[in-house]
Amino acid sequence: MSQLRLGDTAPDFEQESSAGPIRFHEYLGNSWGVLFSHPADFTPVCTTELGYTAKLADEFAKRNVKVLALSVDDTDSHTRWIDDINDTQSTKVNFPILSDKDRKVSELYDMIHPNANATLTVRSVFIIDPNKKVRLTITYPASTGRNFNEILRVIDSLQLTDSHSVATPVNWEDGDDVIIVPSLQDEAVIKQKFPKGYKAVRPYLRITPQPNK
């Protein structure tokens, strides 16, 4: 089992879920994807995470993102947990939860870290683009809830920078100024791409208003 790195193809798999069998690449289709894992059902931090993710359904849809959670318990347990999530978080879980009892997906995505816990999945996040390439990986400790606003922010950045010759600076939010990539040096091309102009703080640090998506 090798560690997945940015730019690697996200491994395909078929696994049961709360919504029936999932073939991962087929499930994603031409969408972006967020795959995130949970140590087990009926865990308190994950209950809040799944509830908040469900409330972000419109935000994910706006960005053409499909969400897929994973827990090592079975589908019957998932069904009962989803009822709890809906009740305690005042929402409706609207995405599948993979049932990874055999640890197939957990091992495929290196979600079990023996130094943290030899048996349970750690709380990992993968952002995957429509070409099925891994674009982000984050692993959280069990005690710390994930920041799904940050996950949306990264998706915004990836989608913007994939289509324009820019990078996003520290603490960037959608609509903020961006940075022209250093590799772009042709002034005629820069003028065409960035008609609002730019400010050269240094030759390598050129700030420009965010282009239209």
Q: What does this molecule look like?
A:
By secondary structure, the protein is α+β, with helices and mostly antiparallel strands. It folds into two domains: 139 residues, 3-Layer(aba) Sandwich (Glutaredoxin); 45 residues, Antioxidant, Horf6, Chain A, domain2 (Antioxidant, Horf6, Chain A, domain 2), CATH 3.30.1020.10. Helix content is 31%, strand content 22%. The chain is built from seven helices and eleven strands. The strands form three sheets. It has a five-stranded mixed sheet. Strands 8-9-11-10 form a four-stranded antiparallel sheet. Helix 2 packs across helix 4. The longest helix has 16 residues. It starts with 13 loop residues before the first strand and ends in a 5-residue tail after the last strand. The model has no long low-confidence stretch (mean pLDDT 93).
Total beta-strand segments: 11
Distance between the termini: 38 Å
Overall form: elongated
CATH level 1 name of the largest domain:
Alpha Beta
Q: What class, by secondary structure content?
A: alpha+beta
**Low-confidence parts:** none
Percentage of residues in DSSP E strands: 15-25%
Helix coverage percent: 25-40%
CATH topology of the largest domain: Glutaredoxin
Order of helices and strands: EEHEHHEHEHEEHEEHEE
Number of domains: 2
Q: What order do the strands of the largest sheet run in, or round the barrel if closed?
A: 5-4-3-6-7
Q: Can you give the mean pLDDT? A: 93
Rg (C-alpha, Å): 19 Å
Number of helices: 7
